[in-house]
Design brief:
mainly alpha, flat
Length: 144
């Protein structure tokens, strides 16, 4: 092949030849960048969907574990009632365990209510105060 015949041909790697114009190079760069962005987006989508599936399975397993734990707690409560029923009538044992559970629930509710009240209002008071100070400083600097 002569020098002129292969001067306009591209190499297998797509390298620039002497006859490529700047427009051709910009066009090729644009196409390559577009392809790269599309490929990266596809890769990110595959990665996220894979992680979401794993997270979904994990959340399902956690939910199932919570249900099983709730049943286990019910069995332990029943065991406490049956153990007390050995020393007293069964109805009295169930009543005592029920009252104890309600007292524990009431104490937890009161503690939770106090914590929620202490957190209210959910406004970042320090940040708001800092912003007010910044606004005042800007106003004072503008008036000088």
């Amino acid at each position: 092949m002569s020098h002129n015949a292969d001067a306009g041909a591209r190499t297998a790697a797509g390298a620039r030849t002497e006859t490529d114009s700047t427009g051709d190079l910009v066009s090729r760069l644009s196409q390559d960048v577009s392809r790269l962005v599309r490929d990266e987006l596809r890769l990110a989508q595959l990665e996220v969907s894979g992680k979401a599936k794993k997270a979904g399975v994990g959340a399902g397993l956690l939910g199932g574990a919570g249900v099983i734990a709730l049943y286990g707690l019910g069995v332990l409560i029943t065991t406490a009632i049956l153990a007390l029923a050995l020393a007293m009538p069964a109805w009295l044992a169930a009543l005592i365990v029920g009252v104890v559970l309600l007292v524990v629930a009431g104490i937890a509710a009161l503690i939770g209510k106090k914590r929620v009240a202490a957190a209210a209002p959910p406004v970042p008071e320090r940040a708001v105060e800092s912003i007010k100070q910044d606004v005042d400083a800007v106003k004072q600097a503008r008036n000088r």
